[in-house]
Design a protein that fits this description.
By secondary structure, the chain is mainly beta. 7% of the residues lie in helices and 45% in strands. Strands 1, 4, 6, 7, 8, 10, 11, 13, 14 and 22 form a 10-stranded antiparallel sheet that branches. The chain has a 7-stranded antiparallel sheet with strand order 48-49-52-51-50-53-54, covered by helices on one side. Strands 37-40-41-47-43-44 form a 6-stranded antiparallel sheet, with no helix packed on it. A hairpin with a 2-residue loop joins β50 and β51. The N and C termini lie far apart (73 Å).
Length: 633
């Protein structure tokens, strides 16, 4: 870490040069690639590189297609089609082109490939008899020239509207920021905007405005590119800063992400982040790059200006405290935040944190707090019942522990406990009783936890940081058997292995599967495999789960047909569509599926072939329920 200060100083100076920032830290060949949609004409983006998305950073750029499907998509440079994907989810219909300089360009959510690529793709689909494929293409099979039309733009896969998703990748399959390759079709001279900041206490001795926890402050506009915080901020101990920001581009209504963040305290660099490139395996670290709880509860993205435990993203530089700020005096500390977009536009936020080492015994707020408890890092904070001034009692197995109030909010006492020392079963603070359901403290690494009818298996890659495992089981509500593992506001990196033996006999059925019920409105199918009388699965999220039987087959509705194409809609109200298979006179027929519209349609490999004879369509859901449709054409 001894060279960090020097590196940060150099990078800070670099970021201050807008022309150098626009070039990025790499030497990217400007002018080598042409714009893939309406090249040479003014165009617009619906999303840029690095935007914050659920469980991932947005790679590449989303190019607008005038709100329609069917615009010509051009090869950005000479090369060859090296990979083709056809899928109803994710990137949808996708073309990858490898170029002589080693870069790979990606064109996703396509409606239809150009004839020479479509012919090759249909040959592969029919050879494999699969409706979804992801194949590598030999270098000599599909050469392309710069500016050649390779497809029509579309809305396939996980797209939320017509556009082209365009990426540039390097030899290591890392996604690069296309804006750094110099596309004049996109105009942007608008400075990014600070919306809010948040300051979080990082241990039980820290305070922000005399409290343990997290406090948000609204940024005040001062002048173009300059913001401040009007609200006084005091702090003690180790704290972390988070920011909520957005960016705009000329003549569009869309909001975009920013690429570079710098944090200085008293003139010294503390944290630096430049999202110029990243590897796809890093993407899930976004859930510790942001304040995940705030995103889950309010759908707002706050980016941390410090590196949280378990965050292995490669685009940070920081001080020895990993970007955290230590306030150990009563001085006024000047904080400066700078943010930059891909085109070098920058904004700055200045504010002061006043050190305060003496705790105020009472904090006055307009709205009195309700009794509650919450975990911040390793700290358990308990808010007791109003007008109670005595100690809280922690019940820890066969003993009790008294906690004196750390401070008061209005008339409510606040108690602080270090969970690293012991995990309480419950507590009593006045008339407020809290039950915690703690099972154990789980550090990152391999660990197996067995609890009656529920077993949890943690791998080396499951956790970002220590998990204070809380489990509720034996829950039967309205005949539905559920269990809870902590809550959905806590992120995990990798899956948790779950083995669950239902107590209700009817749930021990091969058509029963795990469903996520964190959303009170709908249930989300998770899956599972039966092993004797237990359901086994890898869960990707914490929260509330249940076992539900799905015995209802998918619905197939015939729409229309010509001699060349037959159309259906399909729908499954339970686990969802798993597979589609169609045959004509016993021979496999390709059926494209667009899950957003629920439509499927056929396409022959041989353009002279006609729909004549016995047509059979088989649709199976993820629970194994099958529907058949037969028609003589």
């Amino acid at each position: 870490m001894k060279s960090v200060k020097y590196i940060l100083s150099v990078l800070y100076s670099t970021c201050l040069s807008l022309s150098i920032l626009a070039q990025g830290l790499g030497d990217y060949p400007k002018g080598y690639f042409m714009f893939p949609i309406k090249p040479g004409q003014r165009n617009y983006l619906s999303a840029n590189m690095g935007e914050l998305r659920p469980n991932h950073f947005h790679g590449g750029m989303d190019i607008k297609t005038d709100g329609q499907i069917g615009l010509a998509v051009y090869a950005a440079a000479q090369g060859y089609v090296s990979r083709i994907r056809v899928s109803t989810y994710g990137y949808g219909n996708t073309i990858y082109i490898t170029h002589p300089n080693g870069y790979v360009t990606v064109y996703a959510h396509l409606d239809r490939f150009s004839a020479f690529i479509n012919t090759y793709t249909l040959e592969q689909l029919y050879a494999l008899e699969q409706t979804d494929i992801d194949i590598l293409v030999p270098p000599t099979a599909l050469p392309v020239t710069k500016g050649q039309i390779i497809a029509k733009s579309g809305n396939t896969g996980g797209s939320g509207g017509p556009h082209l998703h365009f990426e540039i990748r390097d030899l290591q399959e890392r996604v690069l920021n296309p804006a750094l390759f110099g596309f004049s079709e996109i105009v942007d001279n608008i400075k990014p905007t600070f919306d809010k900041i948040a300051i979080r206490t990082m241990d039980m001795d820290s305070r922000v405005n005399d409290e343990v926890g997290r406090a948000e402050f609204t940024a005040q506009y001062a002048s173009p590119g300059k913001y401040t915080i009007a609200t006084p901020i005091t702090a003690k101990g180790l704290i972390g800063v988070e920011i909520k920001v957005h960016d705009k581009m000329n003549d569009t209504h869309n909001s975009y992400g920013i690429n570079c963040i710098e944090l200085k305290v008293d003139g010294k660099e503390v944290f630096y982040h430049n999202l110029e490139t990243y590897a796809f395996h890093e993407s899930r670290y976004i859930n510790v790059h942001i304040d995940y709880e705030t995103y889950i509860l309010r759908k707002q993205y706050f980016e941390k200006c410090y590196v949280a435990d378990g965050n292995n993203l490669s685009f940070y530089l920081m001080n020895p405290l990993h970007g955290k700020i230590s306030i150990r005096d009563s001085a006024a500390h000047k904080v400066e935040l700078r943010i930059y977009d891909s085109n070098g536009n920058q904004s700055m936020l200045n504010f002061v944190i006043k050190g305060k080492q003496n705790q105020s015994p009472k904090i006055v707020k307009t709205t009195p707090p309700a009794p509650d408890f919450k975990i911040f890092e390793n700290t358990l904070r308990i808010i007791g019942s109003a007008n109670y001034t005595g100690n809280a009692t922690l019940y820890i197995k066969n003993k009790t522990k008294a906690l004196a109030p750390a401070y008061f909010i209005n008339q409510s006492p606040v108690y602080i406990h270090d969970l690293r020392k012991e995990l309480p079963d419950s507590s009593m603070a006045g008339t407020y009783k809290a039950v915690y359901d703690f099972v154990d403290m789980i550090a990152p690494g391999r660990r197996k936890v067995v609890m009656d009818n529920l077993t949890l298996q943690f791998s080396d890659s499951t956790l970002f940081d220590t998990l204070y495992l809380q489990v509720k089981k034996h829950l039967i509500i309205n005949g539905i058997e559920t269990f809870e593992i902590n809550n959905p506001t806590q992120p995990v990196y990798g899956p948790i292995g779950v083995v669950f033996c239902p107590e209700i006999a009817a749930n021990k059925n091969e058509r029963c599967y795990f469903y996520n019920i964190n959303n009170s409105v709908s249930k989300k199918y998770e899956g599972g495999v039966w092993s004797e009388d237990s359901l086994v699965h890898n869960l990707k999220y914490l929260g509330k789960f249940t076992v539900i039987k799905d015995s209802i087959p998918p619905v197939i509705t015939y729409k229309s047909n010509t001699t060349k194409r037959i159309n259906f809609s399909i729908f499954d109200q339970g686990s969802g569509i798993d597979s589609i298979r169609a045959t004509l006179n016993g021979k496999w027929v390709m059926m494209y599926y667009e899950h957003k519209s629920r439509l499927i349609w056929s396409e022959f490999k041989d353009p002279t072939e006609v729909l004549k004879g016995e047509f059979i369509l088989e649709v199976i859901d993820k629970a194994g329920n099958k529907s058949l449709y037969k028609k003589t054409l």
